[in-house]
DNA sequence: AACAGTTTCAACCGCGTCCGG
DNA sequence: GCCGGACGCGGTTGAAACTGT
C-alpha cells in the first residue's frame, strides 16, 4: 500500500504557473498570510496542489527574493556551507536570506560543481604549494560526484560534537575557488510570452510590499519571470563585449574575494562577543536542526545593510576554526584567476 | 537558416519530520 | 506512545533557451 498522493490528482493542473494564477495566489496570501497550504487551493479555486502553491510562493512569489547572478561572495559562501553542511540546501539558504534553497541547489548543480571540476582538472597532480587546497576540493568534488545522495561524510563532521562545533570542524573543508568570470548573460526572458505579462505581478507585489506587515521594507521585491532589471544588467550587451566584460569581471571577482578575505582578517581583531554569540547559535543549530536558525537569521537581518548579507561572522567561524582553512584562504588568493 | 546537442531552471515527486489529537 | 495529516526538504525531470556546427 503506497503513500496516498498529497492531493487529488484529478483536476490538478501541473506545469508552469501563469501570471493569473500568481495573482490569485499572491492576493490570497496577502490577505491570509502564508501557511495552511492545504486550504489554499480550496479557498482560491486554483487547480493546483497545496505543495505546488507553497513551492511557487516560497521560491518565486515571496517578497525579498533576489534572483539572477550569484556574486562571488555568495558563491564562496555556498561552497563553504555545502562542504560543511552537505546538500542541506535549506540550511545553506538560511545563511543567504535572499536566495531560495531551490535556487542554490540549481546553482550548485549547474555552475559550482562544474567550476570545482574545472579547478580539479587544472590540478591533476597535487601541486606542492596548494596541497591542502586541491585535496580539499578533490574530496569535495568526489563526495558530490560519487555520493550525491549520501551526506554521511558531512554529517559526521557536523553532528559529531553538538556542544562544541569548533572541535569537529571539517578539516577537509573545501574552499572557495578563484571566482569564475560570469557566464554570458542569456537574453532576458521578458521577451517570452509568459514574461511579457509579468510587470503586473511585479507591480502587485511592489504595492503589497509597501503595505504588507509580512514584508520587510528593505527587501527587494521578488522579481519573478526574470524581469531582469537588476540581475542581468548586461543582458543587452553585445556578445562581442564578452571578452572585455570577462576581464573586468575577473578583476571585480578578485576584489570581492579580497574583501571577503580581508573581512575575515578584520574580524580577528573584533571583540569576541559576536563570535561567542555565533558559536552559541550554531551550536544550537547543529544540535537541534535547521529550523532553529531563526536566531541566526535575526542576527543576519539586524546587520543586513548592504547588498550582500553580513555573514562575516559565519565566514569567520567557518575559517577560524581550522588553520587548514585559513591556509586555504591564503592559497585561493594566490591562485591565478583562470576560472 | 536549420538542426542537434547542451545547459538551465521551474516545477514535480516522494520521503522524512513535525505536531496535534 | 501512537497515529495521521500537513509541511518541508532534497533529488529528479523535462521544457525552454542557448550554443555550436
UniProtKB/TrEMBL annotation:
Ranges of residues in domain HTH myb-type: 9-65, 66-116
Keyword vocabulary terms for this entry: DNA-binding, Nucleus
InterPro entries attached to this UniProt entry: Homeodomain-like_sf, Myb_dom, Myb_TF_plants, SANT/Myb
Signal peptide residue numbers: none
CDD domains tied to this protein: SANT (cd00167)
Residue intervals of the Myb-like domain: 9-61, 62-112
Localization: Nucleus
Chain segments carrying region Disordered: 121-195, 219-251
Primary site of residence: nucleus
Biased composition (Pro residues): 176-187
A Gene Ontology term for the protein's cellular component: nucleus
SMART domains for this protein: SANT
Compositional bias annotation for Acidic residues: 239-251
Chain segments annotated as coiled-coil in the UniProt record: none
GO biological process annotation, one example: response to auxin
UniProt GO molecular function: DNA binding
Basic and acidic residues: compositionally biased ranges: 151-162
Biased composition (Polar residues): 121-139
Keyword Amino-acid biosynthesis: no
Protein name per its UniProtKB record: Transcription factor MYB60
Gene: LOC110793892
Amino acid at each position: 500500500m503506497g503513500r496516498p498522493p498529497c492531493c487529488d490528482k484529478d483536476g490538478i493542473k501541473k506545469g508552469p504557473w501563469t501570471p493569473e494564477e500568481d495573482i490569485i495566489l499572491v492576493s490570497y496570501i496577502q490577505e491570509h498570510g502564508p501557511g495552511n497550504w492545504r486550504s489554499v487551493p480550496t479557498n482560491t479555486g486554483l487547480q493546483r496542489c497545496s505543495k505546488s502553491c507553497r513551492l511557487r510562493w516560497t521560491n518565486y512569489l515571496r517578497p525579498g527574493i533576489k534572483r539572477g547572478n550569484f556574486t562571488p561572495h555568495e558563491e564562496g559562501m555556498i561552497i563553504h556551507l555545502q562542504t560543511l553542511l552537505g546538500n542541506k540546501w535549506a540550511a545553506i539558504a538560511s545563511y543567504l536570506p535572499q536566495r531560495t534553497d531551490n535556487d542554490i541547489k540549481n546553482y550548485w548543480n549547474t555552475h559550482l560543481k562544474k567550476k570545482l571540476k574545472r579547478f580539479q582538472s587544472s590540478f591533476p597532480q597535487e601541486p606542492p604549494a596548494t596541497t591542502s587546497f586541491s585535496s580539499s576540493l578533490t574530496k569535495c568534488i568526489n563526495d558530490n560526484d560519487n555520493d550525491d545522495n549520501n551526506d554521511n561524510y558531512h554529517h559526521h563532521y557536523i553532528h559529531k560534537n553538538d556542544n562544541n562545533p569548533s572541535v569537529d570542524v571539517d578539516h577537509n573543508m573545501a574552499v572557495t575557488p578563484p571566482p569564475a568570470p560570469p557566464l554570458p548573460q542569456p537574453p532576458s526572458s521578458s521577451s517570452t510570452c509568459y514574461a511579457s505579462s509579468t510587470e503586473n505581478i511585479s507591480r502587485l507585489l511592489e504595492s503589497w510590499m509597501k503595505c504588507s506587515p509580512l514584508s520587510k521594507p528593505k527587501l527587494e521585491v521578488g522579481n519573478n519571470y526574470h524581469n531582469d532589471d537588476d540581475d542581468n544588467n548586461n543582458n543587452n550587451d553585445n556578445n562581442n563585449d564578452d571578452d572585455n566584460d570577462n576581464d573586468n569581471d575577473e578583476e571585480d571577482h578578485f576584489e570581492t574575494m579580497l574583501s571577503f578575505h580581508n573581512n575575515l582578517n578584520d574580524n580577528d581583531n573584533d571583540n569576541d562577543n559576536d563570535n561567542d554569540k555565533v558559536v552559541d547559535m550554531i551550536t544550537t543549530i547543529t544540535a537541534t536542526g535547521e529550523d532553529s536558525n531563526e536566531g541566526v537569521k535575526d542576527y543576519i537581518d539586524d546587520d543586513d545593510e548592504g547588498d550582500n548579507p553580513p555573514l562575516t561572522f559565519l565566514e569567520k567561524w567557518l575559517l577560524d576554526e581550522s588553520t587548514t582553512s585559513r591556509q586555504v584562504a591564503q592559497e585561493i588568493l594566490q591562485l591565478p584567476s583562470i576560472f
